[in-house]
Design goal:
Elements: E1 14-17, E2 21-22, E3 28-29, E4 32-39, E5 49-53, E6 79-80, E7 85-86, E8 91-95, E9 110-112, E10 118-122, H1 132-145, E11 153-157, H2 159-170, E12 177-181, H3 189-204, H4 221-235, H5 238-244, H6 263-275, H7 281-293, E13 314-320, H8 328-340, E14 344-350, H9 364-381
Parallel strand pairs: 5-8, 5-11, 6-7, 11-12, 12-13, 13-14
Antiparallel strand pairs: 1-4, 2-3, 4-8, 9-10
Length: about 375
């Protein structure tokens, strides 16, 4: 791989909280910065706010060109005027997660001492371990900072769905509706295993330098690229890979045995090379660990029903038939727990061959289900 320069510094829209927060690990970070974007307008009653939570490699640029790549926002198919999350009706908030690398406090941001004084270097590997609940606590600071006492809805897919569930369990009075999409209440052993392969690739890259690559201006590009390639395989289904690539060769009608490259190989290499130009390796390690730690039932003594008992939040649970990373069986387990808690819950499985990534792609049935759910919630709330 050609040389990759470190990520450029970008001036993000941020809210800074001097008192910081105490993490599940017991460590305290102060101050804490949360980078975010908003779309649409908050109504006079402050009752139309929808929080969108991003997935592992997403960020706050949900519905606008990305400042590093120039590519469309990662969920422009869903968030925008007249779309499922309608910015003409809703005030949409999306924040870069705690531990991220797009302006929120994380390994790439400047480290502070116990009194919150800047130390003139990035956190790097000294950034403490975090959890999904820690991410939600940081988002809670932002939501209150914006003057919002109750969210109309919290919506997210994959790791974003974990955050949405954590919001509903930790701050139930603040969440009128919750839409966890293509997600689960805990990370499976298989998912942890795939993450560990990616982390091992990063650690094995000589340019990783024990996580202090920032000291020499290097980037562990090869390791981070391999991590992205491995993860991307899990985001697709076998049917999608076959439909998109099959066994086609790049630039050759048949095998020549002279550096032949399959189209699927070229695609994965492209995914890896572009990823290292917008993501930080230490953030990747931190956030994948947070996903692996996630177990909502464990937060409530092993009782998933207890996480939602007595809740007034309305739920829409969505899964996709070809998603083997977060299969429909995991969504059904969630729905059973919600039913056991007496929650108001709707469930839909979308038939598709696009795999886990389907929630990011053009899936009209999913968009219709989500849009209808949010409109119904808004109508009942008078928002």
């Amino acid at each position: 791989m050609s040389a990759v320069v470190p990520l450029p510094d970008i001036q993000h829209q941020r809210a800074v909280f001097p008192d910081g927060l105490t993490l599940d690990s017991g460590q305290r970070i102060a101050p804490v910065a949360v980078a975010y974007r908003t779309y649409g307008r908050l109504n006079a009653a402050r009752s139309n706010a929808v929080l969108v939570c991003h997935a592992l490699t997403g960020d706050q640029y949900v519905a606008e060109p990305h400042p590093l790549t120039g590519k469309p926002g990662w969920w422009e198919a869903v968030v925008g005027p007249g779309r499922a999350i309608d910015t003409e009706r809703f005030f949409v908030i999306c924040a870069n997660v705690l531990g991220g690398c797009m302006g929120s406090t994380g390994p790439r941001e400047e480290m502070t001492d116990a009194e919150g004084r800047p130390l003139g270097r990035p956190w790097g590997v000294d950034f403490p371990p975090i959890t999904i609940r820690d991410m939600v606590r940081a988002q809670h600071l932002l939501v209150r900072h914006l003057g919002i006492e109750r969210l109309l809805a919290v919506v997210g897919g994959s790791m974003g769905g974990m955050q949405a569930l954590e919001w509903a369990a930790t701050y139930p009075a603040m969440v009128a509706a919750c839409a966890p999409i293509a997600t689960a209440t805990h990370h499976s052993a298989q998912n942890i295993a795939f993450h560990e392969v990616g982390r091992a690739a990063i650690h094995a890259d000589p340019d990783y330098q024990g996580g202090r690559y920032w000291q020499t201006g290097r980037v562990p590009a090869q390791g981070l690229s391999v991590a992205r390639m491995v993860a991307h395989i899990t985001y697709l289904s076998e049917q999608a890979l076959t439909r998109k690539f099959g066994r086609r060769l790049r630039g050759a009608p048949a095998l020549t045995f002279l550096e032949d490259v399959f189209e699927v190989e070229s695609y994965l290499r492209h995914q890896g090379s572009t990823f290292v130009r917008r993501f930080d390796a230490n953030s990747y390690l931190t956030i994948t660990r947070a996903m692996d730690y996630f177990d909502l039932a464990a937060e409530f003594g092993g009782d998933l029903v207890a996480a939602f008992r007595g809740t007034a939040t309305r739920f829409l649970v969505c899964s996709f038939s070809s998603d083997w990373l977060f299969p429909t069986s995991e969504s059904r387990n969630l729905v059973r727990a919600l039913n056991g808690a007496g929650a108001n819950v709707s469930f839909v499985e979308i038939a598709t061959d696009k795999g886990h990534d389907a929630f990011l792609l053009d899936e009209p049935e999913f968009h219709a289900a989500l849009g209808g759910f949010l409109r119904g919630v808004a109508a009942r709330a008078g928002a």
